[in-house]
Amino acid sequence: MKRWSALALSALLLLVSGGVHFLLATSAPVVVARPAPAVAGIRQSAEPDVTVVGQQEAAANDSHRTYSTAFEGESEPQSGRRTAYGASGSAPTWGLEHDLRGAWFADGSRGGRFERVSRGPAPLQSITLPILMYHHIRPIDARISADRYARELTLPADEFDVQLRYLTDRGFKTITMADLALQLQGRKDLPTRAVILTFDDGYDDNYLYAYPLLRRYQLSGTFFITTGLIDLDGYMTFPQLRIMVGGGMEAGSHLLSHSDLTQLSVAQRDKELRESKRELEAETGRAIQALSYPGGAFSPEVVAATRKAGYTTAVTTQYGAVHDGLRPLELPRIRISGWENLASFRSKIDPLIPSEEPTTR
Question: pTM score, two decimals?
């Protein structure tokens, strides 16, 4: 008799447990008020944050999961697709996603819970804006002329002067990658004709030639620095970089060793992303939030790691000027080669000149 009673009790417990699980998996989401964790780089809301307990609709081995969610003050639950960054079949990693309805979430699964980080405007779906990519800015000598690779990367300083004069005469205003990040989040309006000038690798000629010309035209630039090359022959020093940052330039990371992030171990990749950022912040006293992928190499795993390391924007070597507000870590650029003259430069820039506002759609 005792044995049958114990079995009946066990069956009852299993039934109750299964019923609770079924309710959690199929009923409307439950909203529980609680403080949200601080997430670097994202503005915290003054409103009470919530934890949303909702329905997980996708299979366990699906790399994309859909959660139904409901917020305080809303009569109907809303659903949103959340991307789990990582290989298909793996558990989702932490990142940031936007639901296009005005709320940021910490992206990842913890027993079916998502925590709302802050309210704010939805990001733009896309914006058309030229991000120009430069390397060397310097006079051309015989040694450079004899090296085709060096010549390809070297824009003569006088041609750079011509390009800056043209941009200024056409009414372009330079902005930083930080400005673009805010625009893509819908939190800042940009000038009607905005452009970003980026310089990869941290060559000393960027300080000797590009910086003085930018100052002459009252323009700014974003300089992506490979910190392991600082002080080496042909590369700028930290004192030079500090002068440039103090003069209105923006610094960004180009990693420690200019490595292809897609070919590194997880530990090596994370060290490159975090240590270069930390060193630049310590040397400049400024937050470093922009990254340039060496060689333009990236992957979904690299993007997820870049986000986790605290970057808000990252540029590639893919050609283009249309930037997806939901992919701020995969921004295309327009390469300006060493062979560029004003006619070829204009052929790249003129089609992008907006009549009134930066193009959004």
Answer: 0.69
